């Protein structure tokens, strides 16, 4: 299928991803998991959760291998790779792959619809717990698809809270309640927080956490955004070419700030997020100023 793993598409903590082709000429991405993943719990978690899904904004699992120590997942091939290579200004590839404002907006809506489906459209609720640009894949038409369900939790339809022994996710996107119960209970609102942080990165073209900055600087970008919103100042963001773009970016900023509210009860549901993104900007209220901070990297939560 992969011609002896001839063409590598990417590498992550889990292992490598390779391009392949099925007998019917369909292109696939084969995720080969490292043997070091313990008893294969993360692998089985991904198969169990994603096999329950069928949605245009969720990547399709076509098959898997669970033979001896071999663990592999076979996904539909996404020709444009992950979202992260299109949004960060520090990435040299971004210059050549600039997405316009409308494309970024449609990507945000697509991810929101995918999350809404996971939270309330499946037979079971699925909480992803690792929403970030790296885990959003883009097809040839830049239609976004949520991928990487290794950290996902499957819950019954009537279950809204999640019990969690250890924090899961990636620093910069983890909701406060996931690393400290003092902020509230872990629920679908934890994915809402991660989505909000991701949208802020889409709008601003930079990571919320930069490895080279100290802890106090981590809050800079959301704070800067909120201050301009408060003062009704121009965001001076890239990709803005006309008044429509300006309104679209403003709407995405307001929605993202609602999503990253510290108190989970102040965050909208993903259903409400979709409504807000598709509605008129002037109908949106400015959210309260969130406590803009993130867990220390020393906690090694990734």
Q: What topology emerges from the helices and strands here?
A:
Elements: E1 8-12, E2 15-21, E3 27-33, H1 41-50, E4 61-67, E5 70-76, H2 84-87, H3 92-96, H4 101-120, E6 125-127, E7 136-138, E8 144-146, E9 153-155, H5 176-179, H6 188-204, H7 220-230, H8 243-259, H9 270-278
- Percent helix range: 25-40%
Mean pLDDT score: 83
Sheet with most strands: strand arrangement: 1-2-3-5-4
Going by helix content, strand content and strand pairing, the class is: alpha+beta
Question: What overall form do the CA principal axes indicate?
Answer: globular
Point out poorly predicted stretches. 211-218, 294-302
The biggest sheet amounts to: 5 strands, antiparallel
- Report the order of strands and helices: EEEHEEHHHEEEEHHHHH
Number of helices: 9
Radius of gyration: 19 Å
Overall description:
By secondary structure, the protein is α+β, with helices and mostly antiparallel strands. Strands 1-2-3-5-4 form a five-stranded antiparallel sheet, with helices on one face. α4 packs antiparallel against α6. GO terms for molecular function: ATP binding; protein serine/threonine kinase activity.
